[in-house]
């Protein structure tokens, strides 16, 4: 298995620009750096993110999963047309051995146009299907001799499920609804419940409301982590940066119009109104906290006009086009319009996020914080809001502010990692340079202890493994 992974990682792609070596660009843990402070000559010191504390090496991750299509991953790779064909040929011997396990297919929750793919589905009641998912997790863990399993939903966007008393507002209601084969329990929610009952962190990479109140309560009861919703990879990530910049600069966005077209199966599924509505909600809420942060610009709390459009154009395949127009009010009632165009392979943007979510979630499972005056260390709450940087519609514990501004989200991860090694939260004041203080004092500023009296990171060898329920 190790030799197989080395072969895949060392594979080179040959295209019109010659040979290209593989990389993990787009991954915060594998290609990002963290500033530690000033060196002896005043220069900024940056180190790779994954060098600060022990993290799982992505090359050590085992992959298994479910899909409503029985196509092996080599044929699926060829159909998706994401990789250069020369690279596909090199990967085929490894990919064709991976065949997905049967998955849950409830036609009412995804677009009707997905029916032709559904040749690999579980039969029986929802309770039977959940039992099978749990058995699959145990089988994967036992056969691969794994230490832990982390489950991600990377499958189709579902329509929103109803949330109502008696159905899913408590853990007991939800378990009973699954036992009673209630129609309104979605496949993604069944996967979430199965994962939680198996003690596996569950991450929702799509925009639907998988985490109904009953799922959240069950995760808290079982002490299992959950995170969501919807991978933040392209247009929405850019929007969370640009709107933060505009509002922070005292410029008032009044109209935001975002148009997309794409031709992969995600786009095909989103061409159905109910599934598009789930995506529209997760994309539209991304500016809310930035608008609410400036009562000078928005004294009445009215938000900018915000329109999101997604169209299915099969020819462009995975190469999504995103076009945005931002209209803002500026000085003396002037108007400013910014228009941008973005072309990107959706899968190339999303895949590094998947790795980061697994790696950071696994890290969170090993961290405890000891506060002064408390006899027992604390763990994270069940909802891993620290992963918000990677998600469009961050799930947060009740009463917690929702932060969508991208740099604040990244600073949260970075500063927590700094706290784990005894450094203060990062800031860009650089006061030692502005007052002419000796540089050694500047260095000491970044090495002072932070608020927890002790942060524990369990560093024994633990390998994170992702099961990928992909439609």
Sketch the major β-sheet: 6 strands, parallel
Structural class: alpha/beta
The number of helical runs is 16
What form results from the Cα inertia axes? Answer: globular
Provide the residue-averaged pLDDT: 88
Strand arrangement, largest sheet? Answer: 6-5-16-7-8-9
Outline the low-pLDDT stretches.
Answer: 1-6, 441-453, 460-465
Strand-residue proportion: 15-25%
Description:
It is a single chain. With 471 residues, this protein is of the alpha/beta class. The protein is built from 16 helices and 16 strands. The strands form five sheets. Strands 6-5-16-7-8-9 form a six-stranded parallel sheet, sandwiched between helices. A hairpin with a 3-residue loop joins strand 12 and strand 13. Helix 3 runs antiparallel to helix 4, helix 5 packs across helix 7 and helix 7 packs parallel to helix 8. The N terminus is likely disordered.
């Amino acid at each position: 298995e190790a030799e197989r992974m080395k072969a895949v990682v060392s594979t080179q792609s040959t295209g019109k620009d010659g040979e290209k070596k593989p990389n993990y660009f787009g991954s915060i843990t594998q290609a990002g750096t963290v500033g530690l402070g000033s060196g002896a000559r005043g220069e900024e010191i940056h180190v790779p993110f994954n060098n600060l504390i022990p993290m799982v090496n992505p090359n050590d991750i085992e992959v298994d999963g479910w899909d409503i299509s029985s196509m092996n991953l080599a044929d699926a790779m060829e159909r998706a047309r994401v990789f250069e064909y020369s690279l596909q040929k090199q990967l085929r011997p490894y990919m064709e051995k991976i065949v997905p396990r049967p998955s849950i297919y409830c036609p009412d929750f995804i677009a009707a146009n997905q029916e032709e793919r559904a040749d690999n589905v579980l039969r029986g009641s929802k309770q039977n299907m959940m039992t099978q998912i749990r058995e699959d997790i145990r089988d994967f863990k036992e056969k691969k001799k794994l230490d832990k399993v982390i489950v991600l939903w990377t499958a189709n966007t579902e329509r929103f499920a109803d949330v109502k008393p008696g159905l899913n507002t408590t853990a007991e209601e939800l378990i009973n609804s699954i036992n009673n084969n209630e129609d309104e329990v979605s496949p993604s929610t069944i996967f979430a419940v199965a994962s939680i009952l198996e003690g596996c962190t569950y991450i929702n990479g799509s925009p639907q409301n998988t985490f109904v109140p009953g799922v959240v309560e069950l995760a808290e009861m079982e002490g299992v982590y959950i995170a969501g919703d919807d991978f933040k990879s392209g247009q929405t990530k850019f929007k969370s940066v640009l709107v933060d910049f505009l509002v922070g600069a005292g410029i008032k966005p009044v109209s935001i119009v975002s148009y997309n077209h794409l031709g992969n199966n995600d786009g095909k599924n989103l061409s159905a109104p109910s599934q598009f509505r789930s995506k529209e909600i997760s994309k539209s809420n991304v500016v809310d906290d930035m608008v609410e942060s400036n009562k000078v610009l928005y004294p009445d709390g009215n938000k900018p006009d915000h329109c999101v459009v997604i169209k299915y154009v099969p020819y462009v395949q995975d190469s999504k086009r995103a076009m945005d127009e931002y209209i803002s009010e500026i000085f003396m009632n002037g108007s400013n319009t910014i228009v941008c165009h973005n072309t990107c392979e959706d899968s190339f943007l999303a895949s590094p996020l998947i790795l980061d979510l697994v790696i950071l979630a696994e890290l969170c499972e090993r961290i405890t914080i000891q506060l002064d005056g408390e006899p027992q260390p604390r763990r994270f709450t069940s909802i891993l809001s620290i992963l918000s940087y990677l998600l469009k519609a961050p799930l947060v514990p009740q009463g917690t502010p929702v932060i969508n501004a991208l740099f604040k989200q990244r600073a949260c991860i970075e500063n927590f990692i700094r706290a784990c090694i005894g450094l203060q939260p990062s800031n860009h004041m650089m006061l030692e340079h502005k007052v002419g203080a000796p540089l050694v004092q500047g260095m000491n500023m970044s090495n002072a202890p932070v608020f927890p009296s002790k942060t524990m990171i369990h560093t024994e060898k633990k390998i994170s493994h992702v099961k990928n329920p992909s439609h």
